[in-house]
Design goal:
Length: 167
C-alpha cells in the first residue's frame, strides 16, 4: 500500500513519486506458536524477527554502492513506548544511525492500536521518522498511535494507492 502511494503508476491516478523505483525486502516469516491467536492458520502466524529486520537494514546499507536509496519504509511494529526507545534495541538504533548518516531515511509506521501517548517499536527510535495516520480532514485517524515525539502524520484513512505494477 505504501509503495503504491509513493511510487505507483495507475491508469486513474499515480503515486506522489511515480518515477521512483522500489526494492522489496522480505522480513516476515511464518511461525508456529500457541500465541498466534488472531491467525486463520492453525497455530501459525506471520511475524518479523528483530534480527531479520536488522539484517534487512544491513543489506540495504550494503546496496548503497549500487543504488541511491532515499528511504526505507517499515510498516510494522510491536510493543508500546511512551518515550523514545533507543536503549531497547541498540543494534537497530546503531544501524538506523548509520543509514541516516549515509543519506537513507528510515520511515516507520507509528502503530495501529489507537494509543494516544505512545508508539510501537521501531517508530519510537529517535533515528526513525515516525508516521501516524491522518484522515482526509487532517485529523489523527482513530486507529493510529500518536505521541508527543511523533514526527509526521500522513493520510492513512480512505487514501488510495496506485499499483506499483502499473495496472
Amino acid at each position: 500500500h505504501v509503495a503504491g502511494i509513493i511510487a505507483g503508476k495507475g491508469r486513474k491516478f499515480s503515486g506522489v513519486a511515480p518515477e521512483a523505483k522500489v526494492i522489496a525486502v522480505q522480513v516476515f516469516s511464518i511461525i508456529k506458536s500457541p500465541f498466534c491467536v488472531f491467525s486463520t492458520l492453525k497455530l501459525e502466524c506471520i511475524s518479523a524477527f528483530t534480527s531479520d529486520i536488522i539484517r534487512a537494514l544491513e543489506w540495504v546499507y550494503e546496496q548503497r554502492r549500487f543504488y541511491k536509496i532515499a528511504a526505507i519504509n517499515l510498516s510494522l511494529g510491536v510493543g508500546y513506548f511512551e518515550q523514545p526507545c533507543d536503549d531497547e534495541l541498540p543494534a537497530f538504533s546503531a544501524m538506523a544511525r548509520l543509514l541516516n548518516q549515509s543519506g537513507t531515511a528510515i520511515v516507520v509506521a507509528s502503530g495501529n492500536e489507537s494509543k494516544t501517548m505512545g508508539m510501537s517499536w521501531p517508530a519510537c527510535a529517535t533515528e526513525a521518522i515516525s508516521v501516524g495516520a491522518s484522515t482526509l480532514d487532517d485529523e489523527i485517524a482513530k486507529f493510529s498511535n500518536s505521541a508527543t515525539f511523533l514526527d509526521l502524520l500522513a493520510p492513512g484513512l480512505n487514501s488510495h494507492a496506485a499499483s506499483v505494477l502499473g495496472i
